[in-house]
Amino acid sequence: MHTIEFQKRGLPHVHILLWLKPQHKIKTGDDIDKHISAELPDPKLYPKLYEAVSSYMIHGPCGPIDPKSVCMVDGKCSKHFPKKFQNCTAIDDDGFPIYKRRTTKITVTKKGVPLDNGFVVPYNPKLLMKYQGHINVEYCNKSNAIKYLFKYINKGPGRVNVQISKDGGGPDKSQVQDEIKQYYDSRYLTPCEAAWRTFKFDIHDRWPPVVRLGFHLPNQQRVLFKESDDLEEVVQKFSKKETKFLAWMKANKRYPEGRNLTYAEFPSKFVYREGAHEWVPRKRGLSLERVQYIAPGMGEVYYIRVLLTRQRGGDSFESIRAVK
Ligand SMILES: [Zn+2]
After folding, report:
1. Is the residue at 179 inside a domain?
2. Which residue, 147, 130, 119, 168, is CA-closest to 15?
3. For residue 80, how far is its CA from the centre of ligand 1 (angstroms)?
4. Is 164 a domain residue?
5. Count: domains in the chain
6. Other beta carbons less than 10 A from residue 48's beta carbon
């Protein structure tokens, strides 16, 4: 998934979160080293990469060298640079990576100050060489990282209230207070963001789609009707209401190839056709399914959910609760 953010200085930047397939999962420090580096390469061996890292992936200088740097908060670098030297990459007990930053003699000079591996922002050499720009690549195995990205979508644009007055002086007490004007809700955006919005470019995107799978107890399908509707007609109309869940049972009767799947796994091989209320074998594409959450206090319907996470190929309510 990705989200695009516009910073105050205007240029868009993207945050991308990738999930790896099980066979590609990064499990050890050595695995991380295959994709991510936080060191200055040897300029004799890799002159172009050294050039790119020096140009795009160096943080600072900051700290005592440059206390006025934008990253400095209360006399400290808010991004915790320079980082400690480290002989090999490791993953700590909380799952956070500590990248390899060896003590070498290789430095890059910024604002007259030589900076070492402690100031390198983690990068992927291939991406950096291809795109020639600041691309920070990090290992992350925390599910809450996704929350961090959604914060960007939801936090809204930067806002500021500015007033331009004729006399250019301070607040004039004799002036009438215009309370309506004080409630103006304004936003500012840069030409980059304005253009992005005008062209209707995506601000975020996700793949694969996630669909909610509902379920219910026998004859307890959820129905919608108006207060003014005739109740007998409503009962008549909905007495055999089809649902995704009931259609799953029907599909299990019909297609043997789905019987080794749980309800949640079923959409990996089948697609639900809304209009026809039926599951048909999937020809292409992929979607992830989330079985509707039920609080344990809800009783019977909660236990159906528990069974659905285990039972395969259910073709009736009885078969879902049967010990096979
Ligand atoms: Zn800093």
Report:
1. no
2. 147
3. 6
4. no
5. 2
6. 12
The domain of 64 spans 18-139
8-state DSSP, 117: G
Distance from the Cα of residue 314 to its chain's centroid: 34
Alpha helices in the chain (DSSP H): 29-35, 47-56, 125-131, 145-154, 179-182, 191-198, 231-238, 244-254, 300-308, 317-321
Percent of the chain whose pLDDT exceeds 70? 90
Tell me, in angstroms, the distance from the centre of ligand 1 to residue 24's CA: 33
Q: pTM for this structure?
A: 0.71
C-alpha of residue 116 to centroid of ligand 1, in Å: 13
Give the CA angle between residues 120, 124, 129 to the nearest 5°: 100
Cα–ligand 1 centroid distance for 63 (angstroms): 6
| Rounded Cα–Cα distance for residues 233 and 249 (Å) | 27
Distance (Å) from CA 113 to ligand 1 centroid: 14
The C-alpha angle 125, 76, 58, rounded to 5 degrees, equals 20
User: Which of 124, 139, 154 is the C-terminal boundary of a domain?
Assistant: 139
Domain annotation covers residue 105: yes
Q: How confident is the model at residue 92 (pLDDT cuts 50, 70, 90)?
A: confident
**DSSP secondary structure letters along 88-147:** S-EE-TTS-EE--B---S--EEETTEEE-GGGBPPB-HHHHHHH-S---------TTHHH
How far does residue 81's CA lie from ligand 1's centre (Å)?
5
Q: Give the CA count within 13 Å in the CB-facing half-sphere of 31.
A: 12
How far, in Å, from the CA of 122 to the mean position of ligand 1? 14
Residue 13 Cα, ligand 1 centroid: separation in angstroms?
19
Domain final residue pick, 85, 119, 139: 139
Beta-bridge partners for 101: 86
Query: Residues 297-319: pLDDT tens digits?
Result: 999 999 999 999 999 999 999 99
Spatial contact of 105 and 117, defined as CB atoms under 8 Å apart: no
Residue whose C-alpha is closest to residue 318's, from 217, 238, 223, 240: 217
- The answer as to whether 8 is a domain residue is no
Distance (Å) from CA 17 to ligand 1 centroid: 24
